[in-house]
């Protein structure tokens, strides 16, 4: 996320406070720091028996799993599944392979109640020896997370709108120009900056931020109208989609490029707010403010093209109309097609340019029907597929650096899936489907290559030396802390939701669907569910990162993580502090100036969660 790095503090100097009382399952310590401020620390629970479960909602026809953690001698245990307080299923606990990567001394068991397809309020009651534990309650229903939290997920974007009139007249770094960059969304709880992307100086870390949000909202409003309308949310999602499209119009320069960042060094006193690039923990201003495809430009084009289709079909629009949105998208693509490498920090395109440009081209083809966009999409798809290794994993560059991404690891598959939908030639379409199948097989294989009681999506990576990735290709659960950015690592709620969405969207393109849920085979359905369950409470901390939902939520730490909005999602759990490889596990250990890594809400998390639960919901899921 883009908020307070280690060397910066926001202007806010309030005491940290717990927003939601944390139950005995999660220990939260508050102690006076030397400066007299309150420090919040969240530790792994030390209860001998725990039952961790999705605390928000589970699909009636989908995977339903609880993970049991037990400290003690090996004993046989039993479980009872309760629906509305009544026992509906009992059995012996299923032991899982030994696992000590997040601490020794725990045994793990699984309770699978996927066959319980009647709506209701469920809990899992577990007994091992003389110990007993009861899970948090979870509603089971159709359109589960969407119906339960969809209105607040959408509401998060409106609550995050940036409406300061000062943005109507902002300078551009190292120029005499001033521009109107009003609107859009603040990036995070403690950061009122606005970003199509950041971390461009590191080349392989660009996340799709405001432009991805604008596309997901426009795509959802246009293609999933029945779902949003069934829950009374169609007008709301259209309003937010057009809000995003209007902002993209304003930040499209007359030359044809988008402004990457509106930035004020995370609210640092005395820092001037402007259109600029920046780099590093110091937030040093740079002239890298023209968005390459990978720096939000590709998804901005996709969002505007989709918003033009939404305007045409709905008869509505924002401040600007659908014809303007489409003209913007076409002009921006024509510009980036010519100049994109010049806007990349290293002057070279990489995998992120491929999959974001591919999304832009798919949406331009959908909006215009023009053959030239299909021709270019074929080139981008071929380039992306050429970066795939024999086992299905991708490389980021022209060499051997593995592709890994803390916010959008599922986007390569989603872009290929979108391309497959517009490709009329069977052979080309089949190549895309083969690449999708190989990528999903890789995700399953790397995730289950080691003991993994929660099914957390693992990833390949290299560590860095002198700012460049080199050496052995490693595997692990969390993003490595020693990476090309120099300082940036955080929880991965967005990455997990993106991979869940990729497994659902990509998996449906392939043969072999069955009744395991979401129109997927059992292993793919379970993987998709595992990633969302982690964010929604089925994790070792028993913490729902979706604020306002579930039994336990992250603490509020105003010093570095800022405001907490209902419907916002915190960054989440990471590897242990001090681990170059991201090994071990940590959540909000403090000090408060570092808590943004775990606690702060960030726009890509809610964006990707909304996209994933849209994919899980409605007729497409049944």
Q: Structural class of the helices, strands and pairings?
A: alpha+beta
Radius of gyration: 23 Å
Largest sheet: 6 strands, mixed
CATH class of the largest domain, anyone? Mainly Alpha
- How would the global form be characterised? globular
Counting DSSP H or I runs of 4 or more residues, the number of helices is: 14
In the CATH classification, which architecture of the largest domain applies? Answer: Alpha/alpha barrel
CATH domain topology of the largest domain: Glycosyltransferase
Number of DSSP-assigned strands:
23
What portion of residues is helical? 25-40%
The total number of structural domains is: 2
Strand content: 5-15%
Distance between the termini: 35 Å
Nearest-integer average pLDDT: 93
- Give start-end ranges of low-pLDDT stretches: 5-27, 30-36
Task: Please explain how this structure is put together.
This protein has 622 residues and is α+β, with helices and mostly antiparallel strands. The protein has helices at 144-159, 210-223, 225-230, 234-250, 297-314, 322-343, 351-368, 371-386, 411-422, 426-447, 493-508, 522-535, 558-561, 603-616, and strands at 27-32, 38-43, 49-52, 58-59, 65-71, 77-83, 86-92, 94-95, 106-112, 120-128, 131-134, 138-141, 170-171, 178-179, 194-195, 261-263, 274-275, 277-279, 284-286, 459-461, 464-465, 468-469, 474-476. The strands form 8 sheets. Strands 4, 6, 7, 10, 11 and 12 form a 6-stranded mixed β-sheet that branches. Strands 3-5-9-8 form a 4-stranded antiparallel β-sheet, with no helix packed on it. A 3-stranded antiparallel β-sheet has the order 15-16-17, with no helix packed on it. Helix 9 runs antiparallel to helix 10 and helix 11 (493-508) packs parallel to helix 14 (603-616). It is globular and about 75 Å long. The relative contact order is 0.15.
